[in-house]
Design brief:
Helix content is 72%, strand content 1%. By secondary structure, the chain is mainly α. The protein has a two-stranded antiparallel ribbon.
């Protein structure tokens, strides 16, 4: 038995045992989903052409999917708000706060892995740039958007599903709502806009969920959650400042960080060209 910072007794061995049972079952289901993903890639073309059949017919519908639902306040903020609710919810047990930390760790892993796959695997053009598809672009979408970015997998979807998966492990109602939001209002608009194939979205979802489940597995076997709460008690100002910045970056999909990185890379290339 261990005593939490709130003075409550919790049986760590029971929590680890239940996690050991639940998580492998979920991982088996994810592996099954991988097989379905491979089948989905075979019908990518048919699905995206079917969705594209309504693109461009109603400007208001186009703006809904490619403008409004791409805004951080509508895309990621509802999911992040669920995490904040869990953290500050009445009771404030160490379990639920550790779950938030686990979800954030899983989201970070999912985002990093998805970017590594995009950068180092074979390049897959976005559907809007694929030869032979001839997609109609929605209103307000620049035809050169994401031309240099590989399509597989969707890092945006990976991030959303990683967070939603962490929420689901704590609260099934909130979790199902977050998963639905991730699919309908984060993933589907990427297909509608021609930014991703359906298999890109499915792969991003699987990557996000897998990252969170793996992090949950290690969380149940290590003291990471307790260390997180210890830092919060010892350095509350520093902890919540970092917590705020991290949630802001997740909500905005690290957009400022990406721009700074691209600017720094361009600057270094220019300096190299001038020097040599």
């Amino acid at each position: 038995m261990i005593t939490t910072s709130d003075g409550r007794l919790q049986d760590q061995s029971e929590r680890s045992s239940s996690a050991d049972i639940l998580i492998p079952k979920l991982l088996i289901r994810l592996l099954t989903s991988v097989l379905l993903l491979l089948l989905l890639r075979e019908i990518d073309r048919d699905v995206i052409l079917y969705v594209n059949g309504v693109v461009g017919k109603w400007a208001s519908l186009d703006r809904l999917f490619v403008v409004y639902l791409q805004m951080p306040s509508l895309k990621m903020l509802p999911i992040v708000t669920c995490l904040v609710f869990i953290w500050f919810n009445e009771g404030k047990s160490s379990d639920q706060r550790s779950m938030v930390g686990m979800a954030l760790l899983g989201a970070t892993v999912a985002l990093v892995v998805s970017r590594l796959i995009q950068n180092f695997s074979s390049f897959r053009p976005r559907p809007m740039h694929a030869e032979g598809l001839g997609l109609v672009l929605p209103h307000s979408v620049w035809e050169g958007a994401f031309a240099e970015w590989s399509s597989f997998p969707s890092d945006t979807t990976a991030l959303a599903f990683a967070l939603a998966g962490g929420i689901w492990l704590f609260s099934k109602p909130l979790g199902w709502a977050s998963l639905f939001w991730s699919a309908a209002f984060v993933g589907f608009p990427r297909i509608y806009g021609g930014f991703h194939y359906p298999s890109d979205i499915a792969a991003g979802a699987l990557l996000g969920l897998s990252s969170t489940l793996i992090c949950a597995h290690f969380y149940s076997r290590t003291e990471l959650g307790n260390r997180l709460l210890t830092y919060k008690e010892q350095f509350p100002g520093l902890f919540y400042s970092f917590f705020f910045v991290l949630l802001f970056q997740i909500t905005t999909m690290f957009d400022d960080v990406r721009r700074i990185r691209h600017g720094a890379v361009a600057l270094l290339k220019s300096a190299w060209a001038v020097s040599f």
